[in-house]
Write a structure and sequence with these properties.
The complex is a heterodimer of chains A (about 220) and B (about 725).
Chain A lengths: L27 E8 L2 E8 L4 H8 L18 E4 L2 E4 L12 E3 L26 H8 L9 H14 L5 H8 L9 H17 L24
Parallel strand pairs in A: 1-5
Antiparallel strand pairs in A: 1-2, 3-4, 3-5
Helix pairs in contact in A: 2-5
Chain B lengths: L28 H4 L2 E6 L4 H5 L13 E6 L5 E5 L8 H13 L6 E5 L16 H28 L6 E4 L2 E4 L5 E3 H5 L3 E6 L23 H6 L14 E5 L8 E6 L1 H4 L5 E5 L2 E6 L2 H10 L1 E5 L10 H8 L4 E6 L2 H7 L2 E9 L11 E7 L2 E6 L4 H12 L6 E4 L14 H13 L3 E4 L2 H6 L7 E9 L5 E9 L14 E7 L17 H19 L3 H7 L4 H13 L13 E8 L2 E12 L4 E12 L6 H21 L4 E2 L2 E2 L17 E6 L18 H13 L5 E2 L3 H10 L1
Parallel strand pairs in B: 1-8, 3-4, 9-19, 15-29, 17-18, 21-22, 25-28
Antiparallel strand pairs in B: 1-2, 2-3, 5-6, 6-7, 9-12, 10-13, 11-12, 14-22, 15-20, 16-17, 16-19, 20-21, 23-24, 24-25, 26-27
Helix pairs in contact in B: 3-4, 11-12, 14-18, 17-18
The chains are: A alpha+beta (about 220), B alpha+beta (about 725).
């Protein structure tokens, strides 16, 4: 809102006690969820966003910060198969959820035969990723991960969307370079390929690959 | 061997690897290993053209442009940066072409001040047209050096050798050597001064093609690294106390509560109050605990009085172009037209906000910066810290959009100061709100324009006064005998910070010129395309105009024809560009829907056609923003739009059908490609709106309310 930018400290109220006691640290919870096909857990402060969990706690930097207010889509990931904005999604809602980021998108390729360790090969790409790359549906690339995840959600819901449906479905994701035309074309092409592909195979739970990483932000 | 030359590495992943710190370019191989390096001295005219002497003297040492490794891989060291415009790919194509190697034999290192050719900055559509020839010359000379080496090894005159796909072979013979074999055990530095023979267009095998972007795979895989993605052990996230407005001054600040948070460190320096923590959430909380009091002056200038403010601030201008006599010109005209054209402040709003990571080691400091000017940042950081430039290294990962806004990087200074003071690696990643507050906006500006024509429809007068936008794009373009172009500028008159914004100034100036042209054509009852063609003899200008007209199947009619088609044309960065656009106007709501845009561009020799088209499409799409919807609202130093909730940029639903045409012109060297296709967007939309409904819009952005008001005026 005009006047008070977030991040700007308010002017002190008259008579405010200097050096007021700090607010109590927020409660922390242990959150267990699945991230790109693996069981993970993280100890997160209440209010910590999924975006921070991904980028800071798990080092998955493919998911981007763009606005922090659900308005640009750069942080879009899949939560239980649906595209969601990670920048305002609080981590304590994640219990038992299945989260997929751009780093895990290739593993959702239909008919993909996983390697011996259950993971796809490092070079594998989802048809959406291939079409974005082949058609130059990106320039700076900063919105690209969010675009891909939004598009994945769109095609999951509507495997054969019309051009108008793609435009409507992608309209909340912002791109500043102006790759929109090619993004629409890439999604159309991927939809055609996916329609011809064998049925999707859900990656099996591989408990042997369970990793647990905990946040140790503050020694307790 | 540096890890950066790892074959098959996904581009982007390599960007965060740091080799040894300071590299004396004259001792290049200490860190690159063996091979052949090509060192080029860019003295004289080329250096001036490249802006190399703009900010400091050209360095005494020679700059290494490329190295051929013992594995045959070619490392290109370019001071340019990749922000989406595709020059990682186009530069690699230029080297592959001149050196005769496959494109996938090339590794690009860009924007690393310790390793790359000094460069003023990646802006002005300069990479291909000014740096390109130097890069091609370096590659051509390297090929020559390989031929000479092979001649010695094979005992054959160089004239009897040919190169192809990284191999030197005897013409019609069996003997051959790969570039890697030639480079093996070598430590050769070829110093080149003077001219090099570049390949003719007819011989191109890699230039002129459209391979997949070299950054495409890393970017779709989420593996491409940007400044905010770099992680260092012990790294701190910094949040900085910001004033509520740009013109506010800090009166006092109480940091006690923030300091009491465990693990938080507070830095209080001149002009910099920051909280740091290893967890960004805690840094956020600490920032919220700062109790600060600011003195905020009463706003004097705001959106409603900015135009009067400009006119008062810059009453006298400097003549930029002048010929004939305005008095005589006015006498020769049967019809005179006086209009004022307005353009508002516009944000860059790249998807990646300004970000930097700084890490101090002893008396040196490394930075990873989202920058269009790594060497400029190096200089500014050194100046701020009071150390030598050689103690500062700036590395540029992929940049998430720039558009002119990342030529200056206060966040790099902030990160450097905090890392220098604390001794810890510090990331400063601006929030979107900080990005809007500290953006260097596209300048608000106005143009007062008096022009005239005779009864035959020939222009005789062009009296042009631009306030606060500068002169880029203000060339008269048409054949007019009596002309004055006057630039009214006043330092400090902008209440907001302004700077380069994709084709700086041209978006304003071309809006004014091409709108005024349309006004005159309509007043005379002449078709707007015919009017333009009747007033220019420039063959390149005529050709791009005729090309778009043909593409849309134009049948002449004076405006407003009700069809909703508009034209505009211009020159930018040496490139001629014309647009035609078709719009639908909902006269009840005033809403403008751009349905189709056709753009023809003559940019000389095209290095990468699809890359050029991507830039044209990007320009057209981005240009819809300032044409129709983008405007920064402000009161004094208070930027009222701080995020995408109130600041609307073009979305999928705004994007028209786009048709692009590259006009073949192999007789002209490669010209600019990143900016030209945006300059016409304001005028082409305004002219199409007029053609659709007769409403003439004088201000950008052309909002529905403006359209309704213009319709009401008749």
């Amino acid at each position: 809102m005009p006047g008070t930018a977030p991040g700007t400290a308010p002017a002190a109220a008259p008579g405010a006690a200097p050096g007021a006691a700090p607010a109590a640290a927020p409660p922390r919870t242990l959150v267990r969820f699945r991230l790109n096909g693996r069981d993970v857990e993280v100890e997160a402060d209440a209010g910590r966003t999924l975006l921070r969990v991904l980028r800071v706690d798990f080092g998955l930097t493919g998911t981007k910060y763009g606005c922090g207010i659900n308005r640009c889509g750069a942080c879009t990931v899949l939560v239980n198969g649906r595209p969601l904005r990670a920048c305002r999604y609080e981590a304590d809602r994640l219990h038992g959820a299945e989260v997929v980021t751009v780093e895990g998108l290739a593993a959702l390729t239909p008919g993909l035969v996983p390697g011996p360790d259950g993971a796809p090969s490092a070079d594998a790409l989802h048809p959406l990723q291939e079409e974005f790359a082949d058609r130059g549906a990106l320039q700076c690339g900063f919105c690209t991960p969010g675009m891909l995840m939004e598009a994945f959600g769109l095609l999951a819901e509507n495997p054969a969307p019309s051009r108008e449906e793609i435009i409507a479905g992608m309209n909340r994701n912002l791109c500043r370079c102006g790759a929109h035309k090619r993004i629409v074309e890439a999604i159309e092409a991927a939809a055609v390929r996916l329609a011809a592909a064998p049925p999707s195979r859900t990656p099996s739970r591989t408990s042997s690959r369970t990793s647990s990483r905990t946040s140790s932000r503050r020694p307790s | 061997m540096s890890r950066t030359e790892r074959p098959g590495a996904r581009p982007g992943e390599r960007r965060t690897d740091l080799g040894p710190f300071a590299v004396d370019r004259r001792d290049f191989f200490k860190f690159t290993g063996g091979g052949i390096a090509v060192l080029v001295s860019l003295r004289g005219a080329e250096a001036v053209a490249a802006g190399l002497e703009q900010q400091r003297g050209y360095p005494d040492d020679f700059n290494a442009y490329l190295r051929i490794g013992e594995d045959g891989r070619v490392t290109v060291l370019s001071g340019k940066i990749e922000m989406g415009q595709g020059v990682e790919t186009s530069q690699a194509q230029m080297v592959a072409e001149e050196l005769d190697v496959p494109l996938d034999a090339i590794d690009m290192v860009m924007g690393d001040t310790a390793r790359c050719v000094w460069d003023a900055g990646t802006w002005g559509s300069l990479t291909t047209r000014v740096f390109g020839p130097a890069l091609r010359a370096a590659a051509a000379r390297a090929r020559q050096a390989l031929l000479e080496l092979a001649a010695g090894r094979l005992g054959v005159p160089a004239a009897r050798l040919e190169t192809r796909d990284g191999v030197v072979a005897v013409v019609g013979g069996q003997a051959s050597l790969t570039y890697g074999e030639l480079a093996l055990g070598q430590r050769i530095e070829h110093v080149i001064e003077g001219e090099a023979a570049l390949k003719a267009v007819s011989g191109f095998r890699v230039m002129g093609t459209s391979p997949q972007r070299l950054d495409a795979i890393a970017k779709v895989a989420g593996a491409a690294r940007y400044a905010g993605d770099v992680r260092l052990p012990g790294m701190r996230y910094a949040r900085i106390l910001r004033p509520p407005t740009l013109d506010a001054t800090l009166v006092r600040v109480d940091t006690a509560a923030a300091e009491a948070l465990e693990g938080v460190s507070v830095v209080r320096e001149e002009g910099l109050v920051a909280v740091l923590h290893e967890d960004p959430d805690v840094a956020d909380r600490a920032l919220a605990m700062l109790r600060a009091e600011f003195d905020v002056p009463e706003p004097a200038v705001h959106n409603d009085n900015i135009w009067d403010h400009f006119l008062a601030a810059a009453p006298r201008g400097r003549t930029a172009e002048e010929r004939g006599s305005l008095t005589r010109g006015a006498r020769e005209c049967a019809h005179l037209f006086e209009h004022t054209w307005y353009d508002n402040y516009v944000a860059h709003a790249p998807m990646e906000p300004h970000t930097a990571l700084a890490s101090r080691t002893g008396d040196r400091i490394n930075l990873w910066v989202s920058t269009q000017s790594p060497f400029g940042d190096q200089r500014r950081v050194a100046g701020t810290l009071g150390i030598d430039e050689e103690q500062v290294r700036v590395v540029t990962p992929y940049v998430g959009g720039g558009f002119g806004g990342k030529g200056v990087n206060p966040q790099a200074i902030e990160a450097a100061r905090l890392a220098w003071i604390t001794g810890q690696p510090v990331q400063v990643a601006w929030t979107r709100e900080e990005e809007f507050l500290y953006d260097t906006f596209h300048a608000a500006a106005l143009v007062q324009l008096r022009s005239g024509v005779d009864d035959a429809g020939r222009m005789h007068l062009w009296d042009y006064h631009v306030y606060m936008a500068g002169t880029r794009g203000s060339e008269v373009l048409y054949d007019i005998p009596h002309v004055a172009v006057v630039n009214h500028a006043a330092g400090g008159a902008h209440p907001l910070a302004t700077g380069a914004w994709r084709a700086p100034g041209a978006n304003t100036n071309v809006f004014a010129r091409e709108s005024q042209i349309d006004v005159m054509a309509a007043a005379l009852g002449v078709d707007p395309l015919e009017f333009r063609l009747a007033n220019t003899t420039d063959p390149r200008q005529r050709r791009v105009l005729e090309t778009v007209a043909e593409a849309i199947g134009w049948t002449p009619a004076p405006g407003p024809s009700g069809r909703g088609w508009g034209f505009a044309c211009g020159i930018d960065a040496g490139t001629y560009v014309a647009h035609a656009a078709r719009v639908a106007v909902d006269t009840a709501s005033g809403r403008v829907r751009v349905e189709k845009v056709v753009c023809a561009q003559d940019m000389g020799v095209v290095v990468n056609p699809d890359g050029a088209v991507m830039q044209m499409e990007g320009c057209i799409t981005q240009g819809l923003g300032f044409a129709l919807m983008e405007k920064i609202n402000f009161r004094g130093g208070n930027v009222l739009d701080r995020n995408f909730d109130s600041y609307r940029i073009p979305r999928f639903s705004d994007v028209p059908e786009i048709e692009t045409i590259l006009v073949k012109n192999d007789e002209t060297p490669s010209q600019g490609g990143g900016e030209p296709a945006i300059i016409n967007m304001g005028a082409v939309v305004a002219n199409a709106v007029f053609d659709a409904c007769g409403a003439r819009l004088h201000t950008m952005p052309m909002t529905p309310a403006d359209v309704r008001a213009a319709l009401a005026e008749g």
